[in-house]
C-alpha cells in the first residue's frame, strides 16, 4: 500500500507541463521471436513518438509488427519466445526497458493502458464486468470492494452503457460486441492514464458500431488530453481521428506523415498501393487495385527493401540496400513537417 | 436452477434403468448358473436345481425378474445371498463404510497432490520441471494398480516392514495409507496432467494478457484470473473421479485384503451370486450418476457462461 | 486402474477434441508460402521427439515379440521342471537364456513366459482398439452429424454404457464365460469400451460439420454418405486416432488386470496378468516371479501411452 501512496503523490501526470517533450518515444526498437523455423524478426528498428493529446495511427498488414511494438511498450510480450535485443522505449523520458518489473507494473494500467481487439476473449469470462473494472481501483488505489463497484458503475455510465447499475454484475458474454468493447475502453480509462494504446479496437465490430466506438474513444481522448496510439489495418478508420500516421511493413516504419498529407500524396509505393486498394465511388466499374504477392515471412525477410518483391517500382538497388527513412521534402526542397519515407525513390513516388 | 436440477434428475431415471438393466442382463442372460456354481462339482439332481431356481424366481422371463428385483430394491430389499443366507443389505452396510473411507482418503490425496503437481508444472510449461513431472505422471499412468500395489506392498510391508501388508482394521488410517496411495495413483496422475494442461493453456489466453496489462500484481493475476478459470475442468473431473475410485477399489481391496465393497463384489462374482453383484453394481451406478449430476451443477456454479446459457 | 486409463481420457478430452478439430478447419485458411498439412507438420514434430522414437522402437519390438516369440527364446513357456527349477532365482548375466529371469513356482522359465505372454496382451490391446474405433466412430459420427433425436437416443445409449464402471462391467461379462479365449475378451472389452471414441467422434463431427467446406459440399448437392466419408471423416480422424492410441495402452492394462483378477484369458493361456496373479503367493519369498511380468505390463502400457501422447502433442498445436 505504501508504494501505491508514494506513487499517488508523485508529480501529477499532466500533458501541459512538458510541452515539447513527447509522452512516449520509441527508439530503434527491435523485437524477435524464436520459432520452430528460426528467428522471426518481428520489429526491426521502429521509431515513433506520441505527445499528450495526440493520436498516432500505426497502419500495417498483420505481421507488420504493429501489435508487437505495442505489446513491447506495454511490457506484455511473451518473453520467451520474444526478445528485445535492441532499442529504447522512453515514457516521459525514462527508458521503460531498464525499469524493474514492479516499476513497469505500476505504469501499466495507471499511466499507459491498452484496449485489445477481441473484447470477448480479452475479458475474463468467469468474472463479472463490475469486478474486472473495480479491480483497477482496488489494486492501484486500494479502494474497498464497495467503493470500487460504485466507481465501476460510474465508468460504465461514462462509456455510455445503458442501465449500468443493473448490468454491473453481468458477465462479459452477456453483452453485445459493441458494449463489450466499451467495457474494454472503460477499463483502459479507469485510472485516467496518460496514454492509451488501442490495438484494432473496432475490427471485430459491425461497421455502424465501429463508428460509435471510435467516436467515443476520440471524445474521451480529447476530454482527458490523453495520447493515443491507434493500431489498425484499416485506412478508413484512421482518417477522422488520427493526427499522424506511421505505416509499417515487415517490422519497419516505411512512411511517416500527418494524416491528410498521407492520403493526398503518399511517398512510399506500399502506402500508395494501400490507398489504391480502397474501393472508391468515383472509380466505379474499374478494376480494384491489389498489391500483388504476400507479406514477407519474418524468418526470411527479403534483402534490401523488404517490400521489393511486391513493389511495382523496384530497381536493383532495392534488392541490395535497405532504404533509410528519408525526410520528405517538396519538389523545390521546401520542408514538409513530420514527413519521411523509407523508399529509395520517394521523390518519384510523391512527385512523380 | 431448480428446474434444471429437476430436468437432470428426470434424465437420470432412464439412464439408471438402462445401466442396471444392462448389468442385470449381463449377469443373468449370459451363460453361467448361480445354482450350479453353488453346488460346485458335486453331482446334482436337475429336479433339485429346478426347484431352487423356482424358489429364487430364476425361472421367470428375464424382464420379469428385473422388474421384481427393482421393485424389491426400491423398497430397500436387496435380497438374500444364496451361499451365506445373509441379507445383501447387511453385507452392503458392513462393507460400504470401509470403501467410503478408503475412497475418501484416496480422493483427498488425489486432490491435494494432483492439483499441486499440476500447478507447479503448468506455471512453467516446457521447462525441465514440467517435463519431469509429465514423465512421472506417465509412469504412474502406465502402472496398473495391481503392479503398483504389489511393488509398494513388497517394499513397505515385507522389506522395510513399516506397515502391515494387509489391512486388518479399516478404521486405522495408517493401515489404509498404502491402499489409498495405490488407489489414488492413476487419478492423481490424470488430475496433475489435466491441471497442468489447463493452466498452461489459460496462461496464454487473451484475458491473462489483459490482466497483466491492467498492472495487476503477479500474485493476483495467477491467484484470481488464472486459477479461477483453470480449475473449472479440474474440479468437474474430480467429481467424476469419485465414481472411478470406487470401482478401482475392487483391485486395491483385493491386494490389501480390505473388506469393502470391492472384495464383496469379487467374492459374489466368483460364486455367481447375481443378486449381490447387481445390488452393489446398482449402487455404484447410482453414485456415479449422482456424482455426474453434482459435477454438472458445480460447473454451472463455477462457469457463468453455462449458468446463463 | 486400467478401467480408468480407458475411461478417463474422455473427460480430459472435450477441449483437446475441439482444438484438434479446429486445426483441421483452420488448415484451409490462408497458408504461408510453405503450406504444411496437419499430418506432415505432425510428422515433422514427431521425428525429433525422443519420447516418440523410444516408444516407437519399443512398440515395434513388442510387436515382433508377439508375432515371432521363437526369435527371442528357444525355451517353451509351458515346459515345467519342478525338481530342478522350482522358483529358481534370475541369473542376470545369462542374457536371453531360459534361466535369465529365473523360474516360477512350477519351474517354468519366466523369460519364456514373458516373451510368449506378449502375444495375448498385444492381440487384446490391438483388437479391442480396432473394434472400439470402428464402433465408436460410426456411432459418434451418426450422432454428431444428424443431431436431433438420433443424437439424443445415441447419447443416452452412450450414457447408459458409461454409467457402468468399465472394470465392473468387464468382470460381470467375462465371469459368465468359462472358456475365455482372446476373442471373448476382445468382444467383452469392446462391448463396454466404445463409448469413449463415440464421444470424441461426436464432438469432432459437430465442430467439423459447421465448417465452411462441409456447408459448401452440402450446398453443391453432395450426398450425405459422401459428405460423411470424404469430408468429415478425414478431418475427424486426428482426435480419434489420438484417443485410440492412448486407449490402447489402457486396454492392455485392463486385460492384465482382468487376468490378474482371474477373469481374463483362461488359465492355460500364457499372459502377464495371469503370471502376476500366480506370483502373488510367492511375493515374500520369490518376488521376481511377480515383479518381472508386472514390469513387462508397465513397459508395454508405457510405450503405447508415450506413443499416443507424442502423437497428440504433435497434432494439437495448442500444446506447442
UniProtKB/TrEMBL annotation, chain A:
SUPFAM superfamilies this protein is in? Answer: P-loop containing nucleoside triphosphate hydrolases (SSF52540)
Keyword Ubl conjugation among record annotations:
no
Q: What are the transmembrane regions?
A: none
Species, as recorded: Streptomyces swartbergensis
Membrane-related topology note = Peripheral membrane protein
Report domain ABC transporter positions: 26-275
Q: Name one GO biological process term.
A: peptide transport
- GO cellular-component terms in the record? plasma membrane
SMART domains tied to this protein: AAA
What keywords does the record list, in alphabetical order? ATP-binding, Cell membrane, Membrane, Nucleotide-binding, Transport
Q: Which Gene3D superfamilies match?
A: P-loop containing nucleotide triphosphate hydrolases
Q: What is the lineage of its organism?
A: Bacteria, Bacillati, Actinomycetota, Actinomycetes, Kitasatosporales
Keyword Metal-binding among record annotations: no
Q: Where in the cell is it found?
A: Cell membrane
Q: Which family does it belong to?
A: Belongs to the ABC transporter superfamily.
Please give the residue ranges the record annotates as the region Disordered: 1-21
Molecular functions (GO terms): ATP binding; ATP hydrolysis activity
Question: Which InterPro entries would you find in this protein's record?
Answer: AAA+_ATPase, ABC_Ni/Peptide_Import, ABC_transporter-like_ATP-bd, ABC_transporter-like_CS, Oligopep_ABC_C, P-loop_NTPase
- List the protein's name: Methionine ABC transporter ATP-binding protein
From TrEMBL, chain B:
Keywords assigned:
Cell membrane, Membrane, Transmembrane, Transmembrane helix, Transport
Start and end residues of each ABC transmembrane type-1 domain? 96-299
Under the heading InterPro entries, the entry gives:
BPD_transp_1_N, MetI-like, MetI-like_sf
Q: Looking at the keywords, is Transport present?
A: yes
In the UniProt record, the signal sequence range is none
The family line of this record is: Belongs to the binding-protein-dependent transport system permease family.
Q: This chain belongs to which protein, by name?
A: ABC transporter permease
From TrEMBL, chain C:
Q: Which Pfam families match?
A: BPD_transp_1, OppC_N
Q: Which GO terms describe its cellular component?
A: plasma membrane
Give me any GO biological process, just one.
transmembrane transport
Domain of life where this protein originates: Bacteria
The compartments listed are:
Cell membrane
What is the topology of this protein in the membrane according to its UniProt annotation?
A: Multi-pass membrane protein
Q: Which CDD domains match?
A: TM_PBP2
Q: Where is the ABC transmembrane type-1 domain?
A: 118-308
Keyword set, alphabetical order: Cell membrane, Membrane, Transmembrane, Transmembrane helix, Transport
User: Where are its TM segments located?
Assistant: 51-71, 122-148, 160-177, 183-201, 236-254, 290-311
Q: Show the InterPro entries listed in the entry.
A: BP-dependent_transpt_permease (IPR050366), MetI-like (IPR000515), MetI-like_sf (IPR035906), OppC_N (IPR025966)
For this chain, the family text in UniProt reads: Belongs to the binding-protein-dependent transport system permease family.
- Name listed for the protein in its UniProt record: Peptide ABC transporter permease
Q: Which organism is it from?
A: Streptomyces swartbergensis
